[in-house]
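Researcher: Re-running this chain for the archive, since the previous output was lost when a drive failed. Same request as before.
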Amino acid sequence: MAQAYMTETGSGGQGPDRRGTRFHRLLTSLRTDRGIWRRGIVLAAFALVLALVMALHAQIPNRIGNLGSLLETFLPWLGLAVPVLLVLALIRRSATALIAVLLPAIIWVNLFGGLLVDRTGSGGDLTVATHNVNADNPDPEGTARDVAASEADVVALEELTTSAVPVYEKALASTYKYHSVQGTVGLWSKYPLSGAAPVDIKLGWTRAMRATVTAPDGQLAVYVAHLPSVRVKMEAGFTARQRDKSADALGEAIADEKLPDIALLGDLNGTMNDRALNGVTSQMRSAQGAAGSGFGFSWPASFPMARIDQIMVKGVEPVTSWTLPETGSDHLPIAARVKLSATGS
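Model: Regenerated structure tokens:
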């Protein structure tokens, strides 16, 4: 056995000694190849710029084409540049670039690493869901069945058209006894609704509403909102002025809410990182951020790149959050299980 062991690990073997030899060669090259520190300066510079952009994203101004908000919408995707820079640094055999790449990697993990951890729990009092069903949805009846299959207690729908509303009402009637449609948004509930009314988000037409859901474990003020869309234009950049104005108005309405337990369901056309939504996000928690697993991207449905559909709560404890399967819409539906507070009873 001793002889066999010597044969496996000795200088003529194929085991750890060979790997040790390679490591020794690497160390030797680090000591003798001084160019390893001079090469890759450009790569190192790119890595440092990437780190600065991620660390100081909130300082990038919106004055020119809302560049700051555009960056913040897709901020997590900047992390894809890290492995690319790492591979290039290895190809260039540049110690300087390798060390520089560590900086954006650390910043990205600090910003988004927590989202990679499974924070889902169990229990809760109420399941809520929201879905932008798409005004051009070719199969509203099928979409309604898909949403009902989520077994959510409360469902918010956005981008409802006049012709599609009767289809959704009929398809959801057997599952949800109570509902209210205000403009292009609607709320369906297994529990009684009261006080349903539009919320003025400064658009001139109704794309937001509020209602009280009286669940067995307490009352919940539910806001449904579909903030204006944003556009990327060649001559104007990321245009979102109307969206930002509506977000501020929605934030003011939520701040004036009298009930302690509040949920906001809807398509906000912005992510939790987007500073333009601070009027809302500064006073509410993201269910996905608090009790989800992963980023929970919801748009576009064919290849989700951002979570612009949101479930946010105030005075309520998120238990779990998840993305539902694709329907006939260009958005994915999302859902969350929450625990109402004792004061909401």
